[in-house]
Known about the structure:
Structural class: alpha+beta
CATH topology of the largest domain: Immunoglobulin-like
Mean pLDDT: 81
Distance between the termini: 99 Å
Order of helices and strands: HEEEEEEEEEEE
CATH superfamily of the largest domain: Immunoglobulins
Strand content: 35-45%
Number of helices: 1
Radius of gyration: 33 Å
Amino acid sequence: MFETILDEEERGQVGIGTLIVFIAMVLVAAIAAGVLINTAGFLQTQAEATGEESTSQVSDRLQVVSQSGNVTDNATANARVVDELNITVAQSPGASNIDLSETTVELIGTGGQSSFQLDDGAVTIDIFTGSAGDVVLTDNSDRADIGIDLSATTYNSDQSGELNGGDRLSLTFTTASGATTTTELRVPTTLTADQTSVRL
């Protein structure tokens, strides 16, 4: 049943030397496996964090629902001008909570540009569905009216920030996560004395 091995060179290695080599191989394999597992865990954590940040930069945006301006007389220029913007915004689909006090706006017009946060003194925020003083959009049904006093901005020092008929203005909202929304405002060529507000 069992074959007797007579040649010494064909006999298997036995003894403490073989045991040491075997244990060393097991230890090396265990250390290598531990390094691979730790590296894989670190890469997974980093990938998840990067994915969340990238998703926030894409989805945590403001959506402009409507845009209008307050029309008034400019005694110096003897003309009708737009001195205040009223921008109604909402969360974009899939966006998480957006704190408007941490959102910045950039105005770019023919006379220059100006950047400031929405908690600036030139800005008023009124959330229709929230409580008084609330400045965080938490639901897709939330709507906030952002009022920007152009006369308090410095983007166009020649006209005290006010918009004349035919002027154009670019607004860019940037949320705390870095997501941006840009909208173009165009003032009608003629602003009549009967108008108190105008859609832009």
